[in-house]
Amino acid sequence: MHRRHHAVTFQQAAEEAPVLAQLTSLARDSSARLNAIEPLVPPALRASLRAGPIDGTTWCLLVQGNAAAAKLRQLLPALEAHLRSKGWEVSAIRLKVQT
Q1: Is residue 18 part of a domain?
Q2: Residue 78 is part of a domain; what is its CATH number?
Q3: Alpha-carbon distances of 8 from 12, 18, 31, 34, 62, rounded to whole Å
Q4: What are residue 45's DSSP bridge partners?
Q5: Residue 6 in domain
Q6: Residue whose C-alpha is closest to residue 74's, from 58, 63, 86, 87
Q7: I want to staple 14 with a disulfide (CB 3.0 to 4.6 A). Which of 24, 71, 78, 82 is the partner?
Q8: Which residues, given as ranges, of the chain have pLDDT below 70?
Q9: Three-state helix/strand/coil letters over 44-70
Q10: How many structural domains are present in the chain?
Q11: Across the chain, where does the E strand assignment appear?
Q12: Is 21 a domain residue?
């Protein structure tokens, strides 16, 4: 008996594996959150942001550089309130500085 291996897309693999499906869903949710807050972030800082992991009601935002992180810390209450107004359950946004 000959088995033929066939390629599957990432989406097909994610749908067939529950853990991978959950990770894919969290990644999509994180990206959607980033898209939702971008209008509130100064244009000069937008390029330094990346969507990070979600841990319960805490969302991590990846930031390039300490200066950008310092400015974003001032915006966190407004960003959290905006996400809650859009229906996300967010108790805190954590910043992680990428070097």
Answers
A1: no
A2: 3.30.300.180
A3: 6, 16, 24, 29, 31
A4: none
A5: no
A6: 63
A7: 24
A8: 1-4, 14
A9: HHHCCEEEEEEECCEEEEEEECHHHHH
A10: 1
A11: 49-55, 58-64, 92-98
A12: no
